[in-house]
Specification:
Layout (H helix, E strand, L loop, with lengths): L2 E4 H14 L3 E5 L3 E2 L2 H8 L8 E7 L11 H7 L5 E6 L5 E5 L2 E5 L3 E2 H6 L3 E6 L10 H15 L1 E12 L8 E11 L1 H6 L18 E2 L11 H7 L15 H4 L3 E3 L6 E3 L8 H7 L9 E3 L6 E6 L10 H5 L2
């Protein structure tokens, strides 16, 4: 259930989101300025490579350090698993981890917490596992999309090696490596590095030190473009092969845009990237893959075609 918060309650929720994060900490704030208290909250995660920190900031295209100072930027560079993204026209604010999030008016700015009257709507639920539709889930999706489609300034990833020995299994953290850093160019001119085409999708989530070759593995959405996504729970409306259906017109069940008809791949690539964050086969979608008409939540990845259209789809 969502809660409207202001004052000290809102402040404590933001503090808890930062402090309690275990898998993902997502911060979207146009302006970021850290006092000692904020730094102490973040320092809890300084030696935790399992936590991915995604920091999205923006504004002040002509003087970027007004949005995020060099000092605070250097502070975040210390963390073992961090992505920093610049969005020039950002005005929204959101704080979330894998369990809870808040849509709010407050910047991650010490002055705002000490002096401003701010509001927020807080929701507590598991955001990156099974979930039901809510404003906070939509906010999480939108912020993840912002992070993946805007300019990357800094990426640092943990590097692992397989544990050795008869009784050792799994992997162990060895070090962190900086995969991309354009801060000199970004801050050197005082303007954003608008000519950069680097995006989060260009970088792996972690580094495998046991990997012999230097060929990067493809992400799942690249495989999604090439072959059907296998799942025992997906149902096919037709016995025709994928190649026979390639020329048929279908619709993305999330956006309604035209795509190739294939019930095993009923989304556009962009929509699939969002869906892949959670991989909930039963999550309600907006359109019928066969007809393109609004489905009012009656379609999903597992059932992309409205029941009334099944016979027509089988004969398609």
């Amino acid at each position: 259930m969502s809660k409207f918060l202001t004052g000290e309650q809102l402040e404590n929720v933001v503090y808890d989101i930062i402090w309690d994060a275990e898998q993902t900490l997502l911060i979207v704030s146009p302006f970021i300025k850290l006092d000692d208290y904020f730094k102490n909250l973040f320092k809890k995660h300084k030696d935790n490579p399992k936590l991915q920190i995604i920091l999205v900031f923006g504004k002040n295209e002509k003087k970027v350090n007004r949005s995020l100072s060099n000092e605070d930027f250097d502070f975040f560079k210390q963390f073992p698993n961090v992505s920093i993204i610049y969005v020039p026209h950002l005005h929204a604010k959101y704080y979330g981890n894998e369990k809870k999030g808040v849509i709010t008016s407050i910047n991650l700015y010490d002055y705002s917490f000490k002096n401003n009257i701010e509001f927020g709507v807080f929701s507590e639920q598991k955001l990156i596992s099974k979930f039901t539709s809510s404003a906070d889930v939509e906010a999480w999706h939108e912020c993840i999309e912002l992070a993946h489609t805007n300019e990357v300034v800094y990426v640092k990833r943990p590097a692992y090696r397989s544990k050795k020995g008869l009784m050792n299994f799994g992997k162990e953290f060895v070090k962190s490596e900086v995969l991309f850093d354009s801060t000199d160019k970004f801050y050197g001119s005082g303007k954003s590095n608008l000519d950069s085409d680097k995006r989060l999708d260009d970088f792996q989530d972690e580094i495998d030190l046991d990997q012999v070759d230097d060929v990067r593995p493809e992400r799942v959405w690249e495989e999604y473009k090439k072959k059907p996504l296998k799942s025992s729970s997906l149902k096919k409306p037709s016995s025709k092969t994928h190649s026979e259906n390639d020329s048929k017109k279908g619709y993305c069940i999330r956006t309604g845009e035209e795509i190739e008809f294939n019930p095993e791949r009923p989304m556009s690539l962009k929509a699939f990237k969002k869906w892949n964050q959670f991989q909930d086969l039963e999550y309600s979608e907006a359109y019928c893959h066969f007809s393109g008409e609004p489905s009012k939540g009656e379609t999903s990845f597992a059932k992309p075609i409205l029941r009334k259209n099944w016979k027509k789809a089988m004969n398609n």
